[in-house]
Amino acid sequence: YKDGLARFATEPYNTDSMTIKNNCIHLTNSKVNKDNTDSYGDNDDLFSGFLWTLSMLQEYFKEEDIDWDSIWPKIEDVVRKTIILGYDTMKKECLGLKSSYNCYKLLGFDIMLDENLKPWVLEVNTDPWLFAD
After folding, report:
1. Can you list the alpha helix ranges (DSSP code H) found in 22-124?
2. What global pTM score does this model have?
3. DSSP code, position 50
4. Which are the contacts of 25, defined by CB distance < 8 A and separation ≥ 6?
5. Cα→Cα distances 130→86, 96, 118, 119, Å
6. What whole-number distance in Å separates Cα of residue 37 and Cα of residue 84?
7. Confidence of residue 75 (pLDDT cuts 50, 70, 90)
């Protein structure tokens, strides 16, 4: 499945210590940001919300002249490397099954792109929420 979700904070990120308690700056969680409607705006603007599909993100990158085809393989690479790091632990969860083909794990990856569009794994969810709130 090629699509997924991209979530954004509804306030611009900053490191000012006076804003540390403003969760809408530091978190991308939908429950935190969904009520902060003054900051993310215009229903007529496709790119104004805090919750996009990856297809929307790809379209935004295209409009901003950012090469998605150079970024996506880097995201896939950090995901693969992270899975390899956790493989032994995941394999242990399949012990006792008649066949490892019957064992699967759905993972949710939180990836951040830095100012140079380098992907970083923030966390891996072993029980990801599969719905857009």
Report:
1. 23-26, 30-33, 37-40, 54-63, 68-92
2. 0.78
3. S
4. 9, 11, 12, 13, 14, 19
5. 22, 28, 25, 22
6. 40
7. very high
